[in-house]
Specification:
Elements: E1 2-5, H1 9-17, E2 22-25, E3 40-41, E4 55-65, E5 70-82, H2 84-97, E6 101-103, E7 108-112, E8 115-118, E9 123-125, E10 128-131, H3 138-143, E11 151-160, E12 167-174, E13 177-183, E14 188-195, H4 199-209, E15 217-226, E16 235-236, E17 239-241, H5 257-273, H6 277-299, H7 304-317, H8 335-347
Parallel strand pairs: 1-2, 1-10, 2-6, 4-12, 10-17
Antiparallel strand pairs: 3-5, 4-5, 7-8, 8-9, 11-14, 11-15, 12-13, 13-14, 16-17
Helix pairs in contact: 1-2, 1-5, 5-6, 7-8
């Protein structure tokens, strides 16, 4: 028996892949709400999930903006803006169709001697426990697998705001992250930012700069984004972590949906075939997350002037046709780009 805590994308998708009998628990009654995500999926997800009934929009360009410069990069393949409520429930339905037993309104409390305890006084026996319960994973805290986790705080609105529906806009206006406009269509966008500090100040500055009409805000959304760290652990004995609970996040973008799917595949292979989970993660997701980690460390040393210079150099080198799932880093190893990074590094030693 395998028990999974959390019926988000990682938990539900993993449940559908496992060969053993599976119980899936979640504290919510309705899965997929509140929204805590920009909802951008890179094209690689098509390798795992063919259905697209949860797609709201397709993105063909990424527009980069610094204080004084901007540059639009065309994507090699379109990316997808999804409806998280529909997406999460689609994955849950696939798991239930596979025979997974789903238990809503079950708040995880403790795990001891192969028994799971919930706040509603229910308890169940299990051989394996999996935490797919998000950034503040209670399973992780109970098992003490990852300590001293760090986060970015994200704040976002869904608002009536006219913007190019083909283009995902990024603003390098925050010291340790960025702001964004993700279009759902020509009339509605998801606008937000993230930072480890002062996120409310950054957010208010953003919507003022973008001249957002607050009366047209449809809903407010917020989330914690766990920061990936290369030396993390992902399991202890018969307790495992996947997705956000495992801090498997792209540190450049904060994207966690595809790493969640990939980590679910890795854990399913490990449990179904009695393999090492860490080795399976290394095959599928850790290499790219390590590169993301190093790149974010460098970007966090950039000043506004550095970002201006970066975008000028992207224009000069005509960086284009980007595939964010298969980024060829040697395409970016240009003399002037390397020199810019070196200057930022030396300045912060």
């Amino acid at each position: 028996m395998i028990s999974i805590i959390g019926a988000g994308p990682a938990g539900s998708y993993l449940a559908s892949l496992l060969d053993d009998e599976v119980r899936l628990f979640d504290y919510k009654e309705e899965i997929g709400k509140p929204i805590q995500c920009t909802g951008v999926l890179t094209n690689k997800f098509e390798n795992y999930i063919k259905e697209k009934k949860f797609v709201d929009n397709k993105i063909y360009n990424i527009e980069l903006n610094s204080k004084n410069e901007n540059y639009t990069i065309k994507l090699k393949k379109p990316e997808f803006v999804i409806d998280r409520h529909k997406y999460d429930n689609y994955l849950l339905e696939k798991a239930i169709d596979k025979g997974v037993k789903f238990y809503p309104k079950h708040m995880f409390k403790d795990f001891s001697k192969n028994k799971i305890y919930f706040n509603n006084q229910k308890k169940y026996e299990t051989d394996v426990l999996i935490g797919a319960d998000g950034p503040l994973s209670k399973v992780n805290k109970m098992a003490k697998i990852q300590n001293n986790k760090k986060f970015w705080i994200a704040k976002q609105i869904k608002v009536k705001y006219k913007t190019n529906p083909d283009t995902y806009r990024v603003f390098f206006n925050i010291p340790d992250f960025f702001s964004w406009i993700v279009p759902e269509n020509e009339e509605v966008a998801r606008i937000g930012c993230a930072s480890s500090i002062n996120v409310n100040e950054h957010f208010e500055s953003l919507i003022k700069t973008l001249k957002v009409d607050k009366s047209k805000i449809i809903e407010y959304e917020g989330a914690l984004i766990p920061q990936y760290y290369p030396f993390n652990n992902y399991n202890k004995n018969n307790v495992f972590l996947v997705g956000d609970a495992a801090s498997l996040i792209k540190n450049i973008s904060g994207g966690g949906l595809l790493p969640a799917i990939k980590s679910s595949h890795a854990l399913a292979n490990a449990l179904n075939k009695n393999k090492s989970y860490k080795k399976e993660l290394s095959k599928t997701v850790l290499k790219s997350l390590n590169l993301n980690y190093l790149t974010r460390k460098m970007l966090n040393k950039f000043t506004e002037k550095d970002y201006d210079n970066l975008i000028r150099l992207l224009k000069e080198y005509k960086i284009d046709k980007l595939d964010r799932d298969n980024m060829r880093y040697y395409d970016f190893i240009k003399p002037k780009l390397a020199f810019l990074s070196l200057k930022a590094l030396i300045r912060n030693i």
